[in-house]
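Two proteins, back to back. First:
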Amino acid sequence: MSTKQLSSPVSQVSDEIFQTEIKATKPWKIAYILKTTPKEPYWKDVKEGAEKAAQNFNVDITIINSEKPQTTEFVEDQIILVANLIKAEEIDGIIIGSSDSIRLVPAIEKAINSGIPVIAMDTPLNSDRILTFVGFDNFAGGKSMGEWVVKKLEGKGTVAILDGAPNHDNAIQRRLGFMAGLKTGNMKIIAIESANWEQSKAQKITKKLLKKFDNIDTIIAANDSMALGASQAVENTQYSQIIITGFDGLENGLQAIKQGKITATINQAPKQQARLAIQLMIRHLENGETFPNIILLPNTEVITSENLE
């Protein structure tokens, strides 16, 4: 098994990667495997972005997803899904939001050995055999948010972090980014707990943290759903002044900013990620084009009520 670790910072790729778009000359069949159910806001946006791109670029796309939440158990389902796609011999390419950066690698490399190119999206795969990884610079985004919190608290304060799934590289990069940004000030991190991307779990953890600590200035959540869970926990309590931040920039997070429930989020642009992944797959299938190992969307904008359109 070959491995590839995603670390940040990552060198910038050329603008041509993002600017060039071609239409397919054949109705290529591309399987787009989501990490979880499209009922979750982020993956709903990914699905919509992928479907629109497929229309624009004249390819045949099959969206495959789980009805389960983002748990490590779904990796077994994804392994079976990939095996079935190989067996069917009807797919020209696979784009996958992997539920585990390591455990999926043997199945993915089997697909590549059978002649099916694979692009990882959102969460890296620890393989140098894939065509590329398309994602967002989670470390840079986390760092931007950490720096924003330092500025908001005027350089000093206490912070609790609601982490994503422990085995997801994007969760790790966001946490490392948060901590790097917070180091630009005199910030005390009093807790780091995984809510596994889930709103209800974040609410429970936040309630527990509020009982344990009476001096939390900010709760930094690794996605908007967990930020909303934290917001529900502090609502109608003496801690309603706590600054709560999210990450993703999805409709539920933007609406929460408008309503004053959370203070800030990061624009992760899932629809653009999906579009880029499909375009790169088409360029490879049409022309045999190859790409850098890692392609990250460069934007790490912090969205607040002040710049929300």
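And the second protein:
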Amino acid sequence: MCRRTLVTGLLLVCVVLTLGAPALAAPLMQARSVITYPASGMTVSGVVQVTGIATHPNLNFYQLRYAPGSEPRGDSAWVDFAVVQATPVENGVLASWDTTALPDGDYTLALAVWGQDDASSPYVSFVTNLKVNNAQPVPSPTPEVTETPAELPTSEPMPTVVIGATPTPITIEQPATPTPRATAVGESGAVAPSEPESPEGGDDDDSILSAFNFDTGELREAFCAGGIFVALLLVLWGCYLMLKAVIRWYFRHQRRGPPTV
């Protein structure tokens, strides 16, 4: 009875460790920095809702900034308009960009995601060739008007009513069919976003742009997952050796029998 209880307990420990291994080795949230709206090459005005993705396994904060010019440069004058602490966003609104106080012209947007353990290497994405136009409304394509010819009503012969000796024909006229109005058929066109160009030079943005060359976060996640897996294997091996030693000890104790007086 004692041996059966001991074996059952060790088996339960092994099962718990085996089932808990996938949960411990689950991958962490990936670090991503993406602006989905507005897109490169668009014309904006008023208050713009900037949407996108800002995630990190150990998020510290993310910031949104703009600079005059169609693309980022080493001497770009960046202005922050949103800094959000420890709030990841997955395909949602990142912040609002008020362009009413800005002069019309070309601008560049940037999203930087900062982690707790990589303060010098943020994850950055750019939106280039943005045009702010608050002086005039954004031009829209002129719809073409196509006229539909009206159908003429078809007259039908009506019966003649005869009164007295002298027949007098009475003609009943059908009401005219209203002419349908012309229908406007519009052709809408969308401006294809241009591909963002990579930034040029600048000592201040070297650390920011280096995030595109090497992703240390994924390497660190893979190393942690491998270490956890090896540790679990070592724990299972230790449980096996302990179970084996206990069983051997038990059988040796049974063979010796009770001590003789």
